[in-house]
Amino acid sequence: MRKRSHRSRIVAAVAVATALGVTGCDAVGGNSPAPSASAKPSPRPTPLWDRSPSSVAAVGDSITRGFDACDVLQDCPEASWATGASPQVDSLAVRLLGRARAAERSWNYAVTGARMADLPGQMTQAVRRKPQLVTVMAGANDACRSSTAAMTPVSSFRSDFEDALRTLREALPKAQVFVASVPNLKRLWSQGRNSPLGKQVWQLGICPSMLGDADALDSAATLRRDTVQKRVEDYNKVLKEVCAEDKRCRYDGNAVYDYRFGTAQLSRWDYFHPSVNGQARLAEIAYRTVTAKDR
User: Fold this and answer.
1) pTM here?
2) Contact 85/91 with Cβ under 8 angstroms?
3) pLDDT < 70 positions in the chain
4) What sign for the dihedral angle of Cα 90, 91, 94, 100?
5) What is the rounded (10 degree) CA torsion for 256, 259, 264, 265?
6) CB neighbours of 246 closer than 8 A, spacing ≥ 6?
């Protein structure tokens, strides 16, 4: 009896150990099967931001049209920071797509003189091309009015920008957006006011709220320029906040606003709009932002 009982216990123990080894519960827990050596790893999730989009559309104002970069008081889209073909600029589209593809897969819908209220209409045009990336640079003309009282209210600026992004999202939910900050207009005034030719061109109506009476340094002129500058800062805050609400939108982090444009980066005719060199610097800023790793 003792030998049979002892033998029975041994057989039972072996059976239990075998069962445990087969199920592998001591290795992976529960009743899950042991991992197979040939099992493939799970694919990584597709990132929300594509650092190499295959097409680019640009919306905005005179800066994106290359105004005064090549000739006085004329657009020069070939020098545009966003979509231009000029080898001196090496635009964002060229950097992303290559020169040949950029000629076929980039489009510029910016309009000289455009304000944020014009952006929804430009966006409607842009989405017809189904671009993977849309660049936005707008807001300078909202501050550059005949007087500080005529500047676009911040609330309207926000509403118009939201409408533009809504137009994009309704048509192209997965399109990406790069948003450039509004330049530091007061710094542009301080750089250009020493140019007699620049001041003559300013008198033709370029940004009178900031550039009017360029040599005046009295308290009224200082207050006027400070008011314009504060409005630009408020616009940039709106651009940052609205963009942050869209998971496929990247704001430049005030890089354009902070860039210290010198005379080499400003048009030799109006000393206010970017020169070809200045357009190239804007392209660099945009490219760094678009190709940066996920933040």
Assistant:
1) 0.84
2) yes
3) 1-47, 295
4) negative
5) 0
6) 165, 169, 177
Q: How far apart are CA 58 and CA 253, in angstroms?
A: 19
Name the packing angle between helices 185-192 and 219-244 (round to 10°): 140
Residue 19: other Cβ atoms inside 10 A: 10
Look-up of token digits 């045009």: 125
CB neighbour list of residue 276: distance below 8 Å, 6 or more residues apart: 69, 70, 79, 86, 88, 89
pLDDT at 295: 57
Looking at residue 185, its amino acid is L
| Widest CA span in the chain | 119
Which pLDDT score is estimated for 294? 74
Q: Would the CA dihedral through 210, 214, 273, 114 be positive or negative?
A: positive
Cβ-based burial of 1 (10 A; exposed 0-12, middle 13-18, buried ≥19): exposed
User: What is each CA distance from 242 to 41, 169, 194, 265, in whole angstroms?
Assistant: 38, 13, 37, 29
Pick from 192, 228, 183: nearest CA to 208:
228
Polymer length of the chain: 295
